[in-house]
Amino acid sequence: HSITQTFFDNDHKIGTLFSSGKSNFFDLIMIESSRSDLFGKGGYLRPISSLNLKNLSLLDARWSDSCGDYSIPYSWGTTGLSYRSSVAKDEITSWKAFFDPSNEFKNRIVTQTDTTTLTETALIYLGKDPNTENLNELKEAYNVLLNQKPNILDYKYGITYASEFKAKSSMAMTLAYSGDVEEIITQTGQDDWVYTVPKEGSMLWVDCLSFPAKKMTKTATIEFVNFINTPEIAALNSEDMYITTVNGKALELLSKEILEDSELYPARSLIESSHPYKKL
After folding, report:
1. What does the alpha-carbon distance between residue 9 and residue 7 come to, in Å, rounded to a whole number?
2. Were 125 and a residue from 74, 86, 95, 276 both cysteine, which residue would form a disulfide, CB within 3.0 to 4.6 Å?
């Protein structure tokens, strides 16, 4: 089989695939969990129960519940800051470094424009509920983002920026997902990148695999998903891609190094204090 991958900077752009009818170009689409039921109930995704998927019982119920009836979980993690330790004068522990940066980071920050992640991060910085629908609080977050704008090098997903500019990258800080640092290092050759979850808190994301309703689901697509959900392959995928796994049996096969990496598997207390994405 010939495989083609298409990368989107945020879920808003993926949403336009469905509204424009272009989702039928794809066999499998990865979306954030908060969008799964929205797209599914809109008739854009196939119910998982209608597909001959195996190994679903091996997937952690918490992440399966997050993806709902129209998707299956693939990986999960936190949102935080990735930055170059050689640029920072001190260890970064607060979102203040991102929204009100010190001189060394001004005009060297890259951030995605995802309507949920960026806004919700600003709300966390303000000490507000990141899933709030209070208009005054959203206006406060808007002003934080407006004040941050002069310090932004580019509005783009950090990995996208790194892959475009590689060793010529001027980026020194970016809003990131856990696991992004390794790809940024690979793309830029800058090995001083680190990841941190600021003290004010984090968003907890779950990536889900979904099947477009307007595209006939191929046998090969089902076989592929069944394949990557076998414990041995799920563990290999986790190690090779440096991501978390949602497969309980795969966890038992992971190396001690990856299981003890707090970027991928943070302390339970941090997970419990993080905010899940919600359908808004």
Report:
1. 7
2. 95
- CA-based R_g, the chain, Å: 19
H helix runs in the chain, sequence order: 11-20, 33-41, 61-67, 96-99, 117-125, 135-148, 158-165, 180-188, 219-228, 231-241, 248-251, 256-259, 268-273
- Please choose, from the candidates 128, 135, 126, 53, the residue with its C-alpha nearest in 3D space to the C-alpha of residue 96: 126
Give the three-class secondary structure for 149: helix
Q: What does residue 264 show for φ and ψ, rounded to 5 degrees? A: -85, -45
Helix%, strand%, coil% for the chain, nearest 5: 45, 15, 40
Tokens of 77: 């993690």
| CA atoms of 233 and 231, how far apart (whole Å) | 6
* Of 112, 266, 244, the residue nearest 198 (C-alpha): 266
Residue 17's identity, in one-letter code, is: L
Q: What is the pLDDT along the chain (280 residues), one digit of tens a residue?
A: 888 998 887 777 788 888 888 888 899 999 999 889 989 999 999 999 999 999 999 999 999 999 999 999 999 999 999 999 999 999 999 999 999 999 999 999 999 887 788 999 999 999 999 999 999 999 999 999 999 999 999 999 999 999 999 999 999 999 999 989 999 999 999 999 999 999 999 999 999 999 999 899 999 999 999 999 999 999 999 999 889 999 999 999 999 999 999 899 988 888 887 888 887 7
Which among 53, 90, 89, 83 is positioned nearest to 70, based on CA atoms?
A: 53
Q: List CB contacts of 39: < 8 A, sequence separation 6 or more.
A: 15, 18, 31, 45, 70, 210
Q: What global pTM score does this model have?
A: 0.86
CA distance 204 to 221: 28
